[in-house]
Amino acid sequence: MTSRLEELRDRIAELRQEIDDEIARRRARFHYRLERGRAVFEKEVQARHRAARVPLLRFLARTRPLVLLTAPVIYALIVPFLLLDLCVSLYQAICFPVYGIGKVRRGDYIVMDRHRLAYLNGLQKLNCIYCGYCNGIIAYTREIAARTEQYWCPIKHARRTRDHHDRYSGFMDFGDAEAFDTRLAELRALLADETSAKSTHRSE
Known about the structure:
two-stranded antiparallel ribbon, mainly alpha, 2 strands
């Protein structure tokens, strides 16, 4: 029998699919198509984009001085983000095969394509690359952490969390001691099933 929680999870998945479908429909409005994962605009649209670009010097001239002064602070964060990328990638490469957990694909989370838009100047393109990488690393790390949590401690918190990951709603209820052993095995088996499904898909 399907629980209310499972019904809500399914509904959330349906809504996300509807959002993805709507984004796909909007591509026609902005006159681009995807070829091998890359957006390709019509020539007339590309020309309009180039015409709309704000030159770098004009862009900098209308930027508040205090914003410019904070630039070294935000760009310095590339160091911890690179270290985080390295550390979580090594962690899953070493530990996930031992646990039987399917590895998270970086390319599913780190997407850097906005710098190809012709209406952005050089600095704006750099910023888009930087934001795409850093936010992608956060999402990539979160999924690695979520799979780890599902393997070791898939129990909901007693307190409400503000923004939990997608796997959290399938975790065991706080205080449900009777279900812990059996549900732990089931949730770990789901991670193993993900590994098998990925292997089967690659072999087809």
